[in-house]
Write a structure and sequence with these properties.
With about 260 residues, the protein is mainly β. The protein contains three helices and 15 strands. It has a 15-stranded mixed beta sheet that branches.
């Protein structure tokens, strides 16, 4: 099977999404992971702190993102040489933002911190490869990453832990950075730990927050995710995030739940 080389191709005025961005709900709409990574790329590119680290990324998903041309804009909300707050927004042919990111970045330094907490799940070498059964097209988001499950499954309900490595780049002609990889992956935390049947219910997240104690590093990144549903059509998904040397942070998602 021949796959696109990247999630996005640069075009005049922005980027064109490839089929690797297709999400599970509609083949004409993107999974939120790739545009989240594209916004993080833009925010880091607008940073005025050389060598700084992004410590919190808060994404609001304001509308479905179509598979096609998109545009990204940035602005500095709080400038600083040690601490800054950046905003990046994504549109698709109109002024209406479809996704918005606010990202805190801080200056890096050398300090005696806490020891890294090792992942409480088997590593990628001891995990099993798996492909989800619920995507309606063969070339879609799930092909953008190599998935290895340490526990749980794409295709069965309940908590799950998975490792991934990139099978493509984010933007054609550029390497995918570990932070970009982390965001492509982490929006799927509520997908790997789903508690409802994909064919009978929609449980799309309206946001994604990622808090990091240090930047991710290396080829393989992992998440250990749990989804909980409330009694009134809302849910939450939380995941611990790892690289090969230990825990790097945590993610949270709010879910809108309704019958399909």
């Amino acid at each position: 099977m021949e796959l696109p080389a990247a999630l996005y191709e640069p075009v005049d005025g922005g980027f064109r999404a490839t089929d690797l961005t297709i999400g599970p709900w509609d083949p004409g709409l993107q999974h939120a992971g790739p545009p989240a990574a594209l916004l993080a790329r833009a925010a880091e590119g607008a940073s005025a702190i050389p060598g700084g680290q992004t410590v919190r990324l808060a994404f609001d998903i304001l509308g479905p993102v179509p598979v096609g041309p998109v545009q990204v804009a940035t602005r500095v909300l709080r400038p600083g040489q040690r601490i800054e707050l950046l905003e990046a927004t994504l549109t698709a042919g109109s002024d209406r933002p479809l996704m918005r990111l606010t990202a805190w970045r801080v200056r890096s330094g050398t300090y005696d911190g806490s020891a890294a907490t090792a992942a409480l799940v088997p590593g990628p070498a001891a995990s099993r490869s798996e492909v989800p059964e619920f995507f309606t097209t063969d070339v879609a988001y799930h092909r953008a990453l190599d998935w290895r499950f340490a526990s749980g499954s794409f295709n069965a309900p309940g908590p799950a832990a998975a490792w991934t490595r990139p099978a493509c780049t984010l933007v054609d002609g550029e390497p995918m950075t570990p932070l970009q990889h982390l965001l492509v992956m982490t929006d799927a935390a509520s997908g790997i730990s789903a508690v409802l049947d994909w064919t009978r219910a929609t449980f799309a997240n309206v946001d994604l927050t990622v808090a990091l104690v240090r930047p991710p590093a290396g080829e393989w990144l992992g998440m250990d995710a749990v989804t909980t549903l409330g009694p009134a059509g809302a849910g939450q998904c939380f995941a611990d995030l790892y690289d090969a040397t230990g825990r790097i942070g945590r993610s949270a998602q709010s879910l809108f739940v309704e019958p399909r």
